[in-house]
Hints:
mainly beta; two-stranded antiparallel sheet; 6 strands
Amino acid sequence: GYDRTPPGIPTVKTVTYKSTTVSGKAEAGSTVYVYNGSKYLGKGTANSKGNYVVHISKQKKGSTLKIYAKDKAGNKSGYRYVKVK
């Protein structure tokens, strides 16, 4: 059978204006994408324990990052919105 179940929404640790990474937990093996509005910032893959790290350039304080996961079958999770502190 095909996998039609979207991954859960990734969790995200606090992101500040000094941060150069976004990290948290997502479905193991899924790819986590980070955007600021429509601007793509980076992606990373969650390891077997579900931990991911995405390298980003520093973002302005108060801006909102949009984070989601996509599994190997191409199913997309909902969005997690994180305000840069």
